[in-house]
């Protein structure tokens, strides 16, 4: 009975609860409390708390400049404006990302051009840059999805040939490195989310890093206050923005900035815990290699953390990815899957719907064109096979051992699980997608 799947009526394999989060500790609480007590609950310029955060991030990522924002999405908007994206221009992006990294292109006045990922990869295919770059294309967003660094060398090479600015979306990849270099500093601009579920947090917040003084100045124009713009916009062609920029109000809260500064100091500790937890899972699941393929990193590279992805494939075709995930869920293990298929969602398919939010067609002829089903075959293949496993930020050997044991239990019962799926499908159970 102990080995009978829970989805078939057996006992759950997971008995250890998710560990206490541990992301927010006494130091973060103390920093937030000090900031509130000081009265610094809003900052129109670059006050002490915000400056300390930006300086710390610039130093940690070996960048000349860091600019704080109210969210990672806002930082991408700032980066796109800095890169010269405006109405009538295009930006290349993968479909595999969070939606707001795509909608930020519209916020900046640009038009997104969806690109496929490389085969069995989560990252934009460098060959797509050449295929889909046009005369009005200004930039490419490279998302280091699930904390796995994209293979940047061919992307950077293609971008240089095409004269494209490279914006790295590092929202999942705090502390990740590509061949020894921190992600976010390989392209022209790197953007990080500090939202509460990320590897390090501000509650809500974001930050941008760059080695270009000009890009740094331009990035603050859409959403920072004129008190800061009047001090920091020194380039003659940017000074006219000093009195009034875009005023999307993208400034970070000083309380969030104080929390983020402490979190940054704990990044190696928290990521080390996550790596240790992943190592337990990975070692135990070597026997399931026929079912799960884990991403491989380039030599000298290091992953960041936002769960950990694997590609599922039942070589015998007996059990779908969704049925496998459902069986894990019945055991008490909730395994994530891909984000929504954004380019097929109503807002990216129905131009009348889209036009309520953004400009669909510009006077110079640049317009958004919906893609048909199957337009991104590699993306679809990865999306249909993706599983994302939970990785806590605190050392949790007992929990991770049970996660691995749960996967092993389900993998050992594929025949009975296949029969269960066939039976429910044949009965036409409502909502059954097995």
TrEMBL record:
Sorted alphabetically, the Gene Ontology BP terms of this entry are: polysaccharide biosynthetic process
Q: Which Gene3D superfamilies match?
A: Aspartate Aminotransferase, domain 1, Type I PLP-dependent aspartate aminotransferase-like (Major domain)
Gene Ontology terms, MF aspect: pyridoxal phosphate binding; transaminase activity
InterPro entries assigned: DegT/StrS_aminotransferase (IPR000653), PyrdxlP-dep_Trfase (IPR015424), PyrdxlP-dep_Trfase_major (IPR015421), PyrdxlP-dep_Trfase_small (IPR015422)
| UniProt xrefs under SUPFAM superfamilies | PLP-dependent transferases
Q: What is this protein called?
A: DegT/DnrJ/EryC1/StrS family aminotransferase
């Amino acid at each position: 009975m102990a080995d009978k799947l829970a989805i078939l009526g057996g006992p759950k394999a997971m008995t250890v609860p998710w560990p206490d989060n541990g992301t927010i500790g006494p130091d973060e609480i103390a920093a937030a409390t000090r900031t509130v007590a000081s009265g610094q609950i809003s900052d129109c310029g670059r006050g002490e708390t915000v400056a300390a955060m930006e300086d710390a991030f610039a130093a940690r990522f070996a960048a000349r400049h860091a600019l704080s924002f109210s969210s990672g999405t806002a930082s991408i908007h700032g980066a796109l404006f800095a890169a010269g994206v405006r109405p009538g221009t295009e930006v290349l992006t993968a479909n595999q990302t969070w939606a707001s990294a795509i909608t930020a292109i519209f916020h900046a006045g640009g038009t997104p051009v969806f690109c496929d990922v490389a085969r069995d990869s989560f990252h934009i295919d460098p060959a797509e840059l050449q295929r889909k770059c046009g005369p009005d294309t200004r930039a490419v967003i490279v998302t280091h999805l699930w904390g796995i660094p994209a293979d940047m060398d061919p992307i950077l090479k293609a971008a240089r040939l095409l004269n494209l600015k490279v914006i790295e979306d590092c929202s999942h990849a705090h502390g990740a490195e590509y061949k020894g270099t921190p992600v976010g500093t390989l392209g022209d601009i790197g953007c990080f989310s500090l939202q509460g579920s990320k590897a390090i947090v501000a509650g809500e917040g974001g930050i941008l890093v760059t080695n270009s003084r000009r890009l740094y100045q331009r990035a603050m124009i859409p959403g920072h206050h004129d008190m800061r713009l009047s001090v920091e916009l020194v380039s003659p062609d940017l000074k006219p923005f000093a009195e009034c920029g875009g005023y999307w109000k993208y400034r970070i809260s000083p309380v969030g900035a104080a929390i983020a500064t402490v979190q940054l100091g704990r990044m190696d500790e928290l990521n080390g815990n996550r790596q240790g937890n992943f190592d337990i899972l990975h070692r135990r699941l070597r026997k399931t290699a026929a079912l799960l393929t884990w991403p491989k990193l380039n030599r000298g590279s290091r992953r960041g953390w936002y769960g950990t992805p694997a590609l599922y494939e039942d070589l015998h075709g007996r059990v779908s990815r969704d049925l496998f995930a459902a069986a894990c869920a019945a055991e008490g293990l909730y395994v994530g899957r891909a984000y929504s298929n954004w380019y097929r969602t109503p807002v990216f398919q129905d131009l009348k719907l889209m036009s309520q939010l953004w400009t669909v067609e510009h006077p110079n002829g640049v317009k958004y064109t919906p893609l048909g089903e199957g337009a991104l075959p590699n993306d679809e293949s990865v999306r249909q096979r993706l599983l994302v496993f939970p990785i806590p930020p605190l050392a949790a050997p007992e929990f991770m051992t049970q996660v691995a044991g749960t996967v092993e239990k389900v993998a050992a019962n594929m025949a009975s699980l296949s029969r269960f799926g066939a039976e429910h499908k044949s009965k036409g159970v409502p909502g059954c997608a097995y």
